[in-house]
Give the backbone structure.
Amino acid sequence: MAKATIDNVAALAGVSIKTVSRVVNNEPNVRQATQEKVRDAIKQLNYRPSPSARSLASNRSFLVAMLYDNPSAHYIIDVQHGILKECRKRNYDLLIHPCKYQDAELCHEIENLLSKSRVDGVILTPPLSDIPEVMTTLDSLKMPYVRISPAEHHELSACVYCDDSRAAKDMAEYLIGLGHRRIGFIAGHPDHSSSAAREEGFGQALAEHKIKQPKRLVRQGFYDCDSGREAALHMLKTSKPPTAIFACNDNMAAGVIQAAHSLNIDIPAQLSVVGFDDSPICTLTWPELSTIRQPIEELAEKATALLLNELSNKPTSHEEKSLHCSLILRDSSGPAPE
Amino acid sequence: MAKATIDNVAALAGVSIKTVSRVVNNEPNVRQATQEKVRDAIKQLNYRPSPSARSLASNRSFLVAMLYDNPSAHYIIDVQHGILKECRKRNYDLLIHPCKYQDAELCHEIENLLSKSRVDGVILTPPLSDIPEVMTTLDSLKMPYVRISPAEHHELSACVYCDDSRAAKDMAEYLIGLGHRRIGFIAGHPDHSSSAAREEGFGQALAEHKIKQPKRLVRQGFYDCDSGREAALHMLKTSKPPTAIFACNDNMAAGVIQAAHSLNIDIPAQLSVVGFDDSPICTLTWPELSTIRQPIEELAEKATALLLNELSNKPTSHEEKSLHCSLILRDSSGPAPE
DNA sequence: CTGAAAGCGCTAACAA
DNA sequence: TTGTTAGCGCTTTCAG
């Protein structure tokens, strides 16, 4: 059976192709009876509209692109799945496009991808959501886009995000509640805005509890395990080592656990360790890691919903949406030693 | 500046649109001088061919789809990156489509995606590479495809794979060489063909060294951490516990490490642990995990190259390509205790 | 509520 | 080596 076209359907249903088109696109003004005739014919012929013809005629591709540069596989996968969940509902497909955010050619490359106008809209993840040049490029192409977890300037585009700062504050308060007073902090990659937000929330909690944070208990990390381990070794080898360490993500927290093991420090009896992300490694470490869960998939889903709304309705201001993080307490944290 | 079309380019270059088309598609039989004129015009107008028009006229979309159902984020990401690497060279884009391999609707869903004929070809990863119905569906749609790491029937389609059996045998021999004689084996998910291959290689090595494998040292796992931990606890609590454990993937090996920690068994002094995959968690555990590295990205790259070749040349038999695994020795394995 | 006609921007087949 | 002409299968516009 050759591929059916709209003409075949129209012929079989005894209507014009325009009417078939109306039914396929859920346009109004088609009598119920006619609709049914058409749908029958469609089913009978196993008809699927050709995306290329559709998009040539209407200038819409029903394709969205995800642009990203993020080394965390589980983050990317979660975002992809969130996007796809929403896309399926609305009959869009997803095209993925990793890129290097530090690359001088970044914007050219993006322009190159998008000016083929194969895609209707774009979803941006950190750190791309915070690069002004990328936004300018998209704006100049008049390409609709939504940003996931941008640091600031929420008004510049539709966007969705979590309150990282608030979540970090909650976690710090949890540790303080357990009696910890010397709490080490390992910052994340300086290019990722999430790190600054987390540091802010952490600082707030300490300040509110009148805990002074000596410099030796704050170190720069880069969101990878090695930097977490190095930072922890530094802190733990001082004369007044911390009784808890807050790492800005789980990978670094895993590094802290390694450091503790290598120094024969018991977790959580002598040292509490917490991370951020609730990545799969949390349940692979020993002991399992207390952390903060961001609803990544839901964020991506909402982002996609905003984007697709913007693509179907004409008028939209830039909506934004924020979601909550939650503490996940496992075995790596406990009361402070006396 | 409005989007330039092929007509604009033709006008500016003073040639017919067909000639522009020839230049764009690198067809032969265009004089050097003409080519240059055309290229200049293209650059000047910043012309990009419209994918929809192209694909409507030529019935090719320059889009490939990756179909998968695999819970391992890093595996999927590596495959995606391998595919994209090759796609970029040849100006294809990638569309991703996760699905549930046990779903009764699987084939319908695939057919639904592909019969829109938006994509030119498909890449299949395990366990989808081993599902006959999926292959039948693709065949009946005359959709070109390449399988990554199929278990058998290599002749049914183009495919790329590693010799898992051989790699597992090498690893077993390494452990035997360290003096281990009681080596526990934790199988992977029975639906993944990789598990059987790994078990076979492992068994071969033992047989060649005349080591008998008692039943208590072989357990079924499911490629997740929990099943690895449970299996290890069983083995380690017997009266003659193993001195080494070979887990069919790294997640399960991480579970083994957890089990050992919880029983206060020292790794590697009392117990060697090895995994398979060289996933990111290998360097996050304590101690870091010895394992086997599959060149996933390269596999995907080769697979894509085969697919795109098939799409450009008419005549191809089903090529196949195999790549090598390598042992990665870290801190979780060492000499057997006496 | 329905239909006829005119493209969308390209490639394929054929002519020159 | 180059150009001409017909579509590809749909949506849009406008007319009934």
